[in-house]
Design brief:
The protein is of the alpha/beta class. The chain contains 14 helices and 12 strands. A 7-stranded mixed sheet has the order 2-8-7-6-5-3-4, sandwiched between helices. Strand 9 and strand 10 form a beta hairpin. Helix 3 packs across helix 10 and helix 12 packs parallel to helix 14. The protein is globular. The model has no long low-confidence stretch (mean pLDDT 97).
Length: 343
């Protein structure tokens, strides 16, 4: 079965399974799990921060960061297409009691001037802006240039407002831009990095920042039920994920470009090849609704898992378990379906 619903579907490698089986463990709440400690040390080094914290998921990591940066009644600035706003169940309101000021950007690339104009300072009628949230790579598969991140960070420093980055796919962004990951994280105060997407770990994210921030975040993680015990079993594969798996992400990117090129050649499909900057391919079927609705079922019958369309667009995500041959298979099956459905 070829699964391109997301890069969260990746299976842990043989080395990850072996590491989980044999790693030393302890009680992480007491901070005596040596494998978790090692993961957090290495994550901080790799991401260019003083300290890091191991969490169960990207959502838990982002929400822990927001809880740590804000007070109840504060406001945070996010993109209207950001994962924090779109896909985290309104947790900012529930957990932090904060308001989200959402901004719309062309292609999702943040605009420093728009962000600066949206900042609320001391005003009896308005909440105070206490955090700017960025995302890189973006949910639409594009990446934010380093120059844009620097511009926003410099402005935020002048305003004395911290910057958090949802870096669920930050290594994809770094690979796409051809820079070391530290070139992205140097322009944010905290970063959340998902290890269970394209990096193939079975579970987990890391949150990195200053040592003082991570100490406060550790208590908020506990509040959210994230205080784990013998978590080294999860941290061992996560350590391999962050140290080794970014080296192969270019393969996923190349496969995504190949997939986009193949799909774009099929009559009835609109796919912007130039928009493929990481491992995500978005496309539209220009056909009647019934044919679009049956497309995922047809693919499933032919060994391909894909989600249904959202806002008129289909998304396919290449990952470590998808080969070049799999990509060609997807293109062939899609072409066969549209030919059959059009008769």
């Amino acid at each position: 079965m070829i699964d391109v619903r997301s890069d969260t579907v990746t299976k842990p490698t043989k080395e990850m399974r072996e590491a989980a089986f044999s790693c030393p463990v302890g009680d992480d709440v007491y901070r005596d799990d040596p494998t978790v400690n090692r993961l957090e040390e290495r994550a901080a080094e790799i991401l260019g921060k003083e300290a890091a914290l191991f969490l169960a998921s990207g959502t838990q990591s982002n929400q822990t960061a927001i809880m740590t940066w804000t007070n109840r009644g504060d406001e945070i600035i996010v993109s209207d297409s950001a994962h924090i706003y779109e896909h985290e169940v309104g947790a900012v309101a529930v957990l932090s009691g904060a308001n989200m000021r959402t901004l719309s950007f062309q292609n999702g690339i943040p605009d420093c001037n728009k962000i600066e104009e949206a900042i609320c300072e001391e005003d009896i009628h308005r909440p105070v802006t206490s955090l700017i949230c960025l995302e890189n790579a973006l949910a639409n598969g594009r990446v934010v240039p380093v120059s844009v991140m620097k511009e926003i960070y410099d402005m935020a420093k002048r305003k004395e407002i911290p910057v958090h980055m949802d870096g669920a796919r930050c290594f994809n962004a770094a690979v796409s831009l051809g820079v070391d990951i530290k070139e992205l994280t140097r322009y944010v105060d905290t970063v959340s990095c998902c290890l269970s997407k394209g990096l193939c770990a079975p579970v987990g994210s890391v949150l990195a920042g200053s040592r003082a921030f991570i100490e406060r975040a550790r208590k908020n993680r506990k509040l959210l039920g994230g205080g784990m015990r013998q978590a080294g079993i999860l941290a061992a594969p996560a350590l391999i994920a962050i140290e080794e798996m970014p080296k192969r992400l270019s393969v996923d990117h190349d496969n995504a470009k190949r997939l986009a090129k193949g799909l774009a050649k099929i009559p009835g499909i609109v796919c912007d090849e130039a928009a493929v900057e990481i491992n995500m391919v978005f496309f539209r079927l220009e056909t009647e609704k019934k044919i679009r609705e049956e497309y995922p079922n047809y693919l499933l019958e032919h060994g391909v898992k894909v989600n249904g369309e959202t806002h008129g667009m289909f998304r396919m995500v290449t990952n470590a378990d998808v080969t070049t041959e799999d990509v060609d298979r997807i293109v062939k099956v899609t072409e066969e379906y549209l030919e059959t459905a059009g008769r």
